[in-house]
């Protein structure tokens, strides 16, 4: 199956060393060589999506990205091991759509069987994966429940929990979904997360066997969380998701259900004029 990765931060950061470790699995330390992709919001709020059919470990674009200084508060990446759908751009994750005037990104790890949901025309799929179909189903159901207005955050969390549980009846449904600076992560099998604690001096990239001086890369009060199918570092305290668990991360911390109401005002306004479909988003980020 595929692997997913995400970083959610208080301030824009450049998680290039973490990406370098994750991309090693894309045809290097594992056989996830059937494509890769990345989605993030830049510091100015603009969405960016890049997908490829190559092995991330051997792709110059992945090496340039992991060696660059791209900064974001909310970022996800994906490496693919194809099970359903051909190896082509349309089937590479992440996927994107516009909902409630906001850009939504989605990446999935797993297989869904006997899954043929009703999908609204506005969320039609462009590829042939069960993953993109699941994403379209989520958005369709959210509109059915809330219409065209962004709901209160507790209601959105509850809705995603219900929808994810229903889709997970069809198989393995580990995913990351982001909207603005919010990151939702859901697990049925393998998914882990960790919080980068201020003052963490060094970590080791597991797949690269590389020591990183994080103390020199991050501010003393830097706060961010990392989500990954399997831990990508040693030196962080990783926690495994429970089966059927949905987590919400914002501003570099995990929100408990008791704190959702207090964070509702931090969402900000949607970005008017963002692209309406996958191809336009890819063109805008080229």
Shape: globular
Strand content: 25-35%
- Largest beta-sheet characterization: 7 strands, antiparallel
Mean pLDDT: 85
N-to-C CA distance: 28 Å
- Please list the strands of the largest sheet in the order they lie side by side: 3-2-4-1-12-9-14
The number of E-state strands comes to 16
Radius of gyration based on Cα positions: 17 Å
Structure overview:
The chain is of the alpha+beta class and 286 residues long. The protein contains 6 helices and 16 strands. It has helices spanning 16-23, 60-66, 130-146, 153-167, 214-217, 278-285, and strands at residues 3-13, 36-41, 47-52, 72-79, 95-99, 102-109, 174-179, 182-186, 192-196, 203-205, 210-212, 224-228, 233-234, 239-240, 246-250, 253-255. The strands form 3 sheets. A 7-stranded antiparallel β-sheet has the order 3-2-4-1-12-9-14. A hairpin with a 4-residue loop joins strand 10 and strand 11 (210-212). The model is unreliable at 262-286 (pLDDT under 50).
Quick take:
Helices cover 21% and strands 29% of the residues.
């Amino acid at each position: 199956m595929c692997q997913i990765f995400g970083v959610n931060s208080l301030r824009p950061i450049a998680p290039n060393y973490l990406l370098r470790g994750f991309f090693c699995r894309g045809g290097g330390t594992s056989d996830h060589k059937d494509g890769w992709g990345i989605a993030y919001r830049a510091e100015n709020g603009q969405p960016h999506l890049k997908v490829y059919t190559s092995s991330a470990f051997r792709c110059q674009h992945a090496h340039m990205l992991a060696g660059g200084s791209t900064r974001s508060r909310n970022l996800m990446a994906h490496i693919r091991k194809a099970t359903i759908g051909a190896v082509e751009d349309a089937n590479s994750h992440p996927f994107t759509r516009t909902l409630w005037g906001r850009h939504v990104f989605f990446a999935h790890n797993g297989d869904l069987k006997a899954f043929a949901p009703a999908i609204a025309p506005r969320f039609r799929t462009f590829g042939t994966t069960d993953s993109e179909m699941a994403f379209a189903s989520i958005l369709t159901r959210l509109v059915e429940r809330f219409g065209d207005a962004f709901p209160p955050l507790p209601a959105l969390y509850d809705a995603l929990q219900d929808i994810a549980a229903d889709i997970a009846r069809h198989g393995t449904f580990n995913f990351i979904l982001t909207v603005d600076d919010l990151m939702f992560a859901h697990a049925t099998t393998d998914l882990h997360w960790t919080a980068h604690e201020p003052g963490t001096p060094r970590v080791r990239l597991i797949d690269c066997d590389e020591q990183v001086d994080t103390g020199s890369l991050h501010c003393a009060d830097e706060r961010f969380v990392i989500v990954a199918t399997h831990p990508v570092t040693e030196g962080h305290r990783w926690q495994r998701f429970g089966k059927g668990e949905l987590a919400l991360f914002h501003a570099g911390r995990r929100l408990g259900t008791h704190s959702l109401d207090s964070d509702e005002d931090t969402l900000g306004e949607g970005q008017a004029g963002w692209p309406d479909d996958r191809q336009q988003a890819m063109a805008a980020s080229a």
